[in-house]
Design brief:
Chain lengths: ~180, ~325
């Protein structure tokens, strides 16, 4: 079946990106990721797989991490999006960005903006006591951020250079030392 | 991706009516499955009805001590809810065993139930698939897919349902609330939501044209132990090869069929005093491999027995 002639396939709307309200006018098929990269010039969020499997496109919407590739831009009308450019820029790095440098937590760097945005979302989730697949005690809501917890919670971000040990160290620098868990 | 038109629904009845009246319309909630399939042009909606902002995200008590979970509640919100974690821990365990945190933050409960199979041949438009194109044939039968169904499959389709959450909901005997395009509400058992493939695997649910899932309702938690176990190829962010949900004396199996598989034969055997391994055998007596997935029958038997005995993973 064909589209009805004259049907609207574009939309104009407002979206806040890194604290700045933006007016955009895009084809309805535009994903949030393509809006950020191709229309707003923010090349931090990366298109890795474009199917929600690699996490390179991770951004924060209303403070929660999502895959920008699996969302339409129009779904975020009026919402607030934070990309890596809104986390920190050269000269005023976020402590987690600085930790990634200190710990050498990347090689090619392609997954890094997604890793950092994801880690920031992850730390907020853990602070709120949200459980993960590594959480041992669901009932109490206490989710001590063990290394196993961080690895599980970050499994939506793939690093094909395999910098995982250093990524863990960088996140650990921000999250504090691993808690001691009685067996 | 094919072009489409878009509207943001203002109320549930209006959304259902628009879905019934607009040719080629689909509901859009979190979008994590639908948009993926639209990129591959496996889904080709002409019109999207965005139901993501409907006021259906609340989790609230029911009068009888159960919980009503709004269909637009995210997977993350449900998994983190204190009442869910303490009264229905099998549901939290199942949700956090699925997907990644980014996906769970976006995906809704209603969308989770209605997500489509991950059969690799369904995802490959160059191969025949009865689900994509009725009558085209099934590439998965005798194919490479090790994840195929072992229960309830047909000559037309051997795909499995991918949801972890739905397996827990089956064991919890959850009910699904809907609204029709005429504005009528109804409640159906979760086990009646998904259809086995038969000779029409493109028909996936018992929902009517335009019918919208509005909530999942849980009865008071059953007495006894709850647990979700999932076996997969890697430790995180991977679909299951086999999973099970245990809730008191109720058992449901995942990754074995085109719907969450309530293991009533195993339950009956246990009630009659059967040993765990014998109860597993009772359920799996009808299990049939459909390709390179015969290992799943052995795997299922071992995991069921271990879970019922309360021993660690086999």
């Amino acid at each position: 079946m064909d589209m009805p002639v004259g049907a609207a396939t574009r939309a104009a709307f407002q979206i806040t990106v890194n604290g700045e309200p933006r007016e955009v006018d895009v084809d309805l098929r535009t994903t949030l990721l393509d809006l950020l990269r191709e229309h707003l010039g923010l090349k931090g969020p990366k298109k890795g797989c474009d199917h929600g499997q690699c996490g390179a496109c991770t951004v924060l919407v209303g403070g929660r991490r999502i895959n920008a590739c699996l969302s339409l831009a129009i779904m975020h009308e009026g919402e607030s999006v934070t990309t890596i450019e809104g986390v920190g820029l050269p000269g005023r790095l976020h402590p987690l960005q600085a930790a990634f440098l200190t710990r050498d937590a990347f090689q090619c760097g392609y997954c890094t903006p997604g890793q950092i945005c994801s880690a920031l979302g992850m730390l907020a989730e853990a602070r709120c006591g949200e459980p993960s697949g590594a959480t041992l005690d669901l009932a109490t809501g206490a989710t001590p951020l063990t290394d196993a917890e961080i690895r599980e919670r970050m499994s939506g971000n793939i690093c094909r250079c395999s910098a995982y040990p250093q990524i863990l160290e960088a996140i650990r620098d921000i999250a504090g030392p691993a808690p001691e868990i009685s067996p | 991706m094919r072009p489409f038109t878009y509207e943001r629904a203002e109320d549930a009845h209006g959304a259902a009516r628009a879905a019934a009246e607009t040719p080629g319309a689909k509901f859009l909630a979190g979008g994590t499955n639908l948009l993926d399939l639209m990129k591959l042009e496996i889904e080709r909606p002409q019109h999207l009805i965005d139901v993501g902002r409907l006021p259906l995200a609340e989790i609230g008590e029911t009068g009888d001590g159960g919980l009503r979970i709004g269909a637009m509640a995210t997977n993350s919100a449900v998994a983190a809810d204190r009442r869910v974690r303490t009264r229905y821990p099998v549901l939290t365990e199942a949700i956090v065993a699925g997907a990644s945190a980014q996906l769970r933050n976006k995906a809704t409960i209603g969308g989770n139930l209605l997500q489509r199979t991950r059969c690799p041949y369904f995802y490959d438009p160059s191969k025949p698939c009865n689900k994509r194109e009725p009558g085209a044939g099934c590439s998965a039968i005798g194919g490479e897919a090790r994840g195929n169904a072992i229960l309830g499959a047909s000559e037309a389709c051997v795909a499995t349902h991918p949801s972890d959450m739905a397996v827990a909901l089956s064991a919890l005997e959850a009910r699904v609330e809907t609204i029709s395009s005429a504005g009528a509400t109804r409640t159906l058992a979760l086990d009646d939501l998904h259809l086995l493939p038969g000779d029409a695997p493109h028909l996936e649910t018992g929902l009517g044209h335009g019918e919208l899932v509005t909530a999942v309702v849980l009865s008071p938690a059953p007495q006894g132990r709850q647990q979700y176990r999932k076996v997969r190829d890697r430790a995180s962010f991977a679909g299951g090869l086999f999973s099970l949900a245990l809730a008191g004396d109720r058992l449901a199996l995942g990754a074995v069929a085109l719907k969450p598989w309530r293991a009533r034969k195993a339950e009956a055997a246990l009630a009659a005093g059967a040993a765990p391994a014998d109860a597993a055998d009772a359920e799996l007596a009808d299990a049939r491999p459909s390709g390179r997935n015969a290992f799943k029958i052995t795997l299922a038997r071992r995991v069921i027995a271990a879970a019922l005995e309360g021993t660690p993973y086999p």
